[in-house]
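Project outcomes to date are best conveyed with an example. Our students and postdoctoral researchers have been running inverse folding experiments weekly, and each run begins with a structure described purely in tokens. The record below, which covers 416 residues, was selected by the lab manager from last quarter's runs and is presented without edits.
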């Protein structure tokens, strides 16, 4: 077993994601940037190149900026996540930005003709005719007035928040569920008003909270999964998914209406492209996980195969990531150990094991209590509606270091 130490100073009790950095856009299972800031301090990592292979909205980047890092590369398969990250960390001319806002607002108010919506799957199932008409006008006003994609991003974020709110989805869920017929009958949102409020809020958050952080750092965000080419990084800070998207956090479903309305291709396929999304025909039988997967297979072979797919993908991904970390560089993974069929899977141990297999040394794992992460606190491991068990109230911060630094003071005795 790799050493795990409870460390309450990483609980950040009474703090949440936006305690220091306001949210530009809602996103599931975001990582507290405070974790990164503290761990960089503890490991004495300063001014370096950071990679996040599952960057989501870019919380690790915030931690790096606050710690004086100079270069950031983030990868995510979900285009909405990359759009949020790009919008946050692209330096814009504020005057130009607010001029675009005036133009967009003007066009929204003065468009009289009918605008066709983009191809959105089952559009009439998720939106009323009136809402479709207004959303199409807003969408067109953004495209017509702003030719620069860098400036468009913040306008799309306001649009995306609006799409979700004015759709018939239950807004407090990540998965797509439609509100009841009775609720639909009385649902009559003021789409334009809501969009303009969202836009105002988002532009002001960017101006006041993010713009001042942007100096000479370099940012690259890629809408794809990470494969090692030749770039080397000093540190990887990331929070990978805790399981496949279908049975843990539904990143694809959460984003699909926004992605389709904005116009990203293959929006409906995202969940199957994410880690663990593709079916696998063999059980994962290596190392730490083997007995756990065996136990699950005795209850449900199908679930054991699904779980295996996720760990096979995570194993492959760690192989890629470990090649990209410099000598003496650190990998810092923040994960929760999920429960399937009442069996808790030691993902923290798996990650340490995989990095060691790839020439790293496990330094330490901290265990923290989650107080405020936006994710389902309970789920149904049996996938039976209404049947719930407690899961994932703890998170693990797994710290490994590239092997050639075995004899650095940081590693002696397995302590920081
Ligand atoms: C826990 S979230 C990361 C959240 C991020 N730290 C933040 O604060 O916004 C995990 C992310 O992994 C992404 N993801 C899942 N499988 C992936 C893969 N194979 N390659 C790249 N990203 C992936 C999901 O789209 C999701 O955004």
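After processing, the design step wrote out the following sequence:
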């Amino acid at each position: 077993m790799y050493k795990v130490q409870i460390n309450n100073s990483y609980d950040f009790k009474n703090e949440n994601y936006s305690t220091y950095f306001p949210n530009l856009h809602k996103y599931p299972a975001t990582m507290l940037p405070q974790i990164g800031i503290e761990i960089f301090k503890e490991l004495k990592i300063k001014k370096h190149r950071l990679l996040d292979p599952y960057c989501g909205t870019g919380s690790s980047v915030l931690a790096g900026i606050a710690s004086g890092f100079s270069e950031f590369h983030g990868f995510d398969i979900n285009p909405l996540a990359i759009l949020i990250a790009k919008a946050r960390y692209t330096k814009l001319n504020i005057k130009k930005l607010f001029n675009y806002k005036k133009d967009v607002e003007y066009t929204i108010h003065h468009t009289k003709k009918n605008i066709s919506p983009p191809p959105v799957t089952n559009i009439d199932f998720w939106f009323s005719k009136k809402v479709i008409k207004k959303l199409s006008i807003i969408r067109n006003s953004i495209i017509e007035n702003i030719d620069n994609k860098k400036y468009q991003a913040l306008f799309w974020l306001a649009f995306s928040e609006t799409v979700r709110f004015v759709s018939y989805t239950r807004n407090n869920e990540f998965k797509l569920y439609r509100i009841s017929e009775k609720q639909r009958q009385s649902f009559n949102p003021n789409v334009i008003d809501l969009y303009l409020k969202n836009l105002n809020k988002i532009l002001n958050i960017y101006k006041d909270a993010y713009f001042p952080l942007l100096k000479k750092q370099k940012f690259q965000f890629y809408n794809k999964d990470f494969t090692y080419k030749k770039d080397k990084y000093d540190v990887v800070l990331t929070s990978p998914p805790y399981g496949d998207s279908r049975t843990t956090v539904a990143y694809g479903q959460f984003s699909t209406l926004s992605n389709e309305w904005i116009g990203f291709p293959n929006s409906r396929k995202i969940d199957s492209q994410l880690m663990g999304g593709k079916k696998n025909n063999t059980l994962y039988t290596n190392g730490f996980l083997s007995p756990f997967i065996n136990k699950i297979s005795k209850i449900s072979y199908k679930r054991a195969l699904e779980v295996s797919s996720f760990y096979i993908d995570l194993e492959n991904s760690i192989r890629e990531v470990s090649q990209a970390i410099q000598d003496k560089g650190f990998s810092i993974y923040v994960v929760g150990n999920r429960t399937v069929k009442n069996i808790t899977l030691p993902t923290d141990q798996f990650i340490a094991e995989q990095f060691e297999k790839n020439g790293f040394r496990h330094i330490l794992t901290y265990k923290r209590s989650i107080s405020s992460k936006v994710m389902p606190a309970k789920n149904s491991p049996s996938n039976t509606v209404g049947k719930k068990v407690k899961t994932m109230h703890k998170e693990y911060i797994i710290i490994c270091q590239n092997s050639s630094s075995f004899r650095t003071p940081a590693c002696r005795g397995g302590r920081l």
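Residues 158 and 200 are 8 Å apart (CA to CA). The chain has 14 helices and twelve strands. The training component of this project remains on track.
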